[in-house]
Amino acid sequence: MLVIDDDPDVRELLKLVLTHDGAEVKASGTAHQALEILDRWKPDVLVSDIGMPGEDGYNLIRQLRARDEEHGGLIPAVALTGYAADSDASRAREAGFQIHLPKPVEPTTLIAAVARVARLRSRRPGQIGEEIEASGHHIPSSEIGE
Questions:
Q1: 17 contacts 110 by C-beta, under 8 angstroms
Q2: Which of 29, 96, 100, 93 is nearest to 61 (CA)?
Q3: Local structure of 20: helix, strand or coil
Q4: 3-state DSSP call for residue 80?
Q5: Using CA atoms, how far apart are residues 59 and 38, in angstroms rounded to an integer?
Q6: Cα angle at 72 between 126 and 35, to 5 degrees?
Q7: Can you give the pLDDT at residue 122?
Q8: Residue from 33, 20, 67 nearest 3 by CA
Q9: Looking at domain 2-143, what is its CATH homologous superfamily?
Q10: Reduced to 3 states, what is the DSSP secondary structure of residue 13?
Q11: 3 sits in which H/E element
Q12: What global pTM score does this model have?
């Protein structure tokens, strides 16, 4: 799993939560650094902040989705962000994220969201979001674990 957040404390907390659940986690503080990591390593899931200095999470996911499958273009992605309005969730999905989780997020909610997109890994990015919505697991974090 690749975690991207410009806040070092948040990055470390996310790594702690996700590695405690058994995941292999690499972390990045910038979109540029994340893309460099993705050139060398293909994680099962990406968890990214949206609001970061320089390139934001929207730009990161658009660049990732422009890649072919072999270079990570189909890696499922979770947006973890302070932008919590319904319009922010829609914008995240339109950019290429499958799930939008507002910060702060409960560890169990994050783990459930990551598990959900990981299970849907073999589908194209748009299908993953469509399937989550069709199953009643729309973007609000309160519904991710149901």
A1: yes
A2: 96
A3: helix
A4: strand
A5: 15
A6: 115
A7: 56
A8: 33
A9: Response regulator (3.40.50.2300)
A10: helix
A11: strand 2-4
A12: 0.83
3-state helix, strand, coil in the chain (%, to 5): 50, 10, 40
Structure tokens at 105: 């997020």
SS3 for 23-66, per residue?
CCCEEECCHHHHHHHHHHCCCCCEEECCCCCCCCHHHHHHHHHC
**Tokens at 49, concatenated:** 């902040």
Give me the residue label for tokens 């404390």.
9
CA distance 2 to 57: 13
Least trusted range by pLDDT, from 6-15, 50-59, 90-99, 136-145 = 136-145
- Verify cis geometry, omega within 30 degrees of 0, for the bond prior to 107: no
Residue type, 64: L
* Full strand arrangement of the beta sheet holding 99-102: 26-28, 2-4, 46-48, 77-81, 99-102
Q: Is the pLDDT of residue 86 over 50?
A: yes
Instruction: Report the candidate in 60, 71, 59, 77 with the shortest Cα–Cα distance to residue 123.
Output: 77
**Which amino acid, residue 104?**
P
pLDDT top residue among 146 and 101? 101
Task: For residue 111, name the pLDDT band (cuts at 50, 70, 90).
Answer: very high
